[in-house]
From TrEMBL, chains A, B:
SUPFAM superfamilies documented for this protein: Dihydrofolate reductase-like
Span of domain Bacterial bifunctional deaminase-reductase C-terminal: 4-184
UniProt protein name: Dihydrofolate reductase family protein
Gene3D superfamilies the UniProt entry points to: Dihydrofolate Reductase, subunit A
UniProt xrefs under InterPro entries: DHFR-like_dom_sf (IPR024072), RibDG_C (IPR002734), Riboflavin_Biosynth_HTPR (IPR050765)
Species in which this protein is naturally found: Nocardioides caricicola
Signal peptide: none
Length: 214, 214
């Protein structure tokens, strides 16, 4: 059964980094709230191509491995793909180079004129859609071939799916820092613990891993 | 050496209950964010006079016990004492009955005309002060007789002491609920993890206990 999954990064005070233009699209707070994740063996290998075996192998790494497991399609917002940062580049192909680390269809939500599909190396195709999120989700479910769907972000896209009751599994990695600025991860999500079962775990790094499952 | 301590209750999204008038001074979200604490053996005995031994005895209870240990004076805001709720009652003596569960001097910060001290049964005296928080803290340190000082709340008073760098130990009990309303616990406290050492622990109830110590 295909499940809809979201992984988010938050500070202790429920903030996530706000982007800061083309030079720093994730914003300067992205580093501190993802530091423990970036340090894992899985992230070093999967995202940075470091196959030396370096990196942490504890609780953070277990969540990082789960992040990459069993996904057949992804849905992301226009901002995460980069359409807001580079609105005038019709050939923009995302931040991830010629061979993005997806390997499956990625549906990009856009309210501007949809673009033609882009087929990348390694099995990733970017497909631009301007329909209702429920309709895009239905199409992504078809494309996922029985595997799960990841709603990749950004935070506004993630919250839209959560508010609409479309998410089965939410994982939030809460870094032990107080940001007091940025986007609010939990905005409009009052009572989420009543529709989902919650678990909490503290990693060796001090990162709190919170999951909501239904 | 006298230390300045604060204990706070928060939701997962960094909110704490906002009061709702004389009938419900703590607000309707106070119950959900303090439920695990109220369930402890220590709170049942110390606050509700239940000496039957009922109540939880795990991690939540360890923090509840610490809360009551080693305090020689308290500082609280006018709102927490009730001066904002009952501004026209010159005989208001707080919410805690004839024998409040303090047993030491309690300094009430007020920007309106200070009232005479009130001596209650059981060793509690309420002392109303309109000076700078640093000056009140100095007076409370004298009164604490070598024990610690608790800044009891509410959240605005707690944040004022934290922002001013006056707090040695902060404990936040984070309940596994999303409120998305109320006062923001962490507002204006960006970077607190850089001036204090942080620990995190998950209680049997799902409550997260976060401490900041310097």
């Amino acid at each position: 059964m295909t499940r809809v999954r979201i992984d988010l990064f938050s500070s202790l005070d429920g903030c996530t980094s706000a982007g800061d233009g083309p030079e720093n699209p994730m914003g300067e707070d992205w580093g501190p709230i993802t530091a423990a994740y970036v340090a894992t063996r899985t992230m070093k290998e999967r995202v940075f191509g470091d196959t030396s075996g370096a990196g942490t192998t504890g609780i953070d790494d277990a969540y990082a491995t789960a992040f990459f497991t069993g996904i057949g399609a992804e849905i992301m917002g226009a901002a995460m793909f980069g359409l807001h940062t580079f609105p005038d580049d019709p050939d923009w192909k995302g931040w991830w180079g010629d061979e993005p680390p997806f390997g499956f269809p990625v549906f990009v939500l856009t309210s501007t004129a949809p673009r033609p599909d882009i087929a990348m190396q390694g099995g990733t195709t970017f497909r631009f859609r301007d329909g209702r999120i429920e309709d895009v989700l239905a199409e992504a479910s078809e494309a996922a071939g029985g595997l799960d769907i990841r709603v990749g972000g950004g935070i506004r896209t993630a919250r839209a799916f959560l508010r609409a009751g479309l998410v089965d599994d939410l994982h939030v990695a809460i870094a032990p820092v107080v940001l007091d600025r940025g986007h609010r991860v939990w905005e409009d999500l009052r009572g989420l613990e009543q529709t989902h079962r919650m678990t909490t775990e503290v990693a060796e790094s001090g990162t709190l891993h919170v999951t909501f499952t239904r």
